[in-house]
Amino acid sequence: MDPRLQLRVQRYGWDRAATIYDRAWSRQLEPAQALLLELARLTEGEHVVETACGSGLVTARIGRAVGPEGRVVATDLSEGMLEEARELAAKEGLENITFQRRDAADLQLPAGDFDASLCCLGHMYVPDVPAAMREMGRVLRPGGRAVTAVWGERKRCGWAEIFPIVDSRVETEVCPLFFQLGTGDTLHREMAAAGFKDPEVRRVVTTLSYASDEEALEAAFAGGPVAMAYSRFDDDVRAEAHAEYLESIAPYRVAGGYRIPGEFVVGRGEWRP
Ligand SMILES: C[S@@+](CC[C@H](N)C(=O)[O-])C[C@H]1O[C@@H](n2cnc3c(N)ncnc32)[C@H](O)[C@@H]1O
């Protein structure tokens, strides 16, 4: 897929998803976000850069962890997501965070300036993962640490059929390499290749809970990476795609909704260029 097209699909898709994202995903992503922050071991006064900060769910926690003497630069490709993040930071009175619209592979920040570089569930969407990993390192001081969380193995993510269901109805795939980083030892290899020493990688089994068909459909279609493609479906195509997706998650139906298995992979490495 043409990298520029992938960036546009992501940027404008997440703009569309922005106001739905927290309702659809904040509870479901908590285990990945919590482990990312645990591995980051942030302390007061530190300088932190965040890539793909989205609506600011992790950003606000970083801002509180580093305190008023600390500094956070939060970046994302989507202005819509950044708007949500700015609002959250303002609501929480966090004045130590600045927001910038940036591609993960080109943060446009000085080299060696940060103690920690974090990215929660962003690297599955970037066209050039090695460049984005190197960029996380480039901005760190020697000994600084990077932590990134991605979705795990396709076969352990019960909602994975969303991609072929959408891709079969559009001209170009939405997230061609979505599960690549979470497969086998790929995340470890990518971090090591980017210059991180002895990366530590952990897998977390999780469950996505939805109370109804409507909740499961909103999260999968309107609240995430396929939102751009979905916005162009007419009513008939939407109905067909909904029915196929519900059939794909039917094995996980329980009394009162769905409990769909998932997996996150979180990697941490020290920058030793
Ligand atoms: C699943 S959300 C994660 C948001 C947030 N980190 C969280 O944990 O809730 C993915 C985010 O990646 C961003 N994104 C996608 N491609 C990107 C790129 N190439 N560079 C920077 N951000 C990107 C999207 O705009 C979206 O906000």
Which secondary structure elements does this structure contain, and how are they paired or packed?
Layout: H1 3-40, E1 47-51, H2 57-66, E2 71-76, H3 79-91, E3 97-101, E4 114-120, H4 129-138, E5 140-151, H5 162-167, H6 186-194, E6 196-210, H7 213-222, H8 227-231, H9 235-249, E7 253-254, E8 257-271
Parallel strand pairs: 1-2, 1-4, 2-3, 4-5
Antiparallel strand pairs: 5-8, 6-8, 7-8
Helix pairs in contact: 1-2, 1-3, 1-7, 4-6
The structure holds S-adenosylmethionine.
Q: What is the rounded Rg? A: 18 Å
Termini Cα gap: 31 Å
Helix content: 40-55%
CATH class: Alpha Beta
Number of helix segments? 9
CATH superfamily: Vaccinia Virus protein VP39
Bound molecules: S-adenosylmethionine
Instruction: Write down how many β-strands occur, each being a DSSP E stretch of 2 or more residues.
Output: 8
Q: Any idea how many domains? A: 1
SS-based class: alpha/beta
Largest sheet: 8 strands, mixed
Approximate shape: globular
Description:
The protein has one domain (3-158, 173-209, 261-271): Vaccinia Virus protein VP39 (Rossmann fold, 3-Layer(aba) Sandwich). The chain is built from nine helices and eight strands. The chain has helices at 3-40, 57-66, 79-91, 129-138, 162-167, 186-194, 213-222, 227-231, 235-249, and strands at residues 47-51, 71-76, 97-101, 114-120, 140-151, 196-210, 253-254, 257-271. Strands 1, 2, 3, 4, 5, 6, 7 and 8 form an eight-stranded mixed β-sheet that branches. Helix 4 (129-138) links the parallel strand 4 and strand 5. Helix 1 (3-40) packs across helix 2 (57-66), helix 1 runs parallel beside helix 3 (79-91) and helix 4 crosses helix 6 (186-194). The protein is globular and about 55 Å long. The two termini are 31 Å apart.
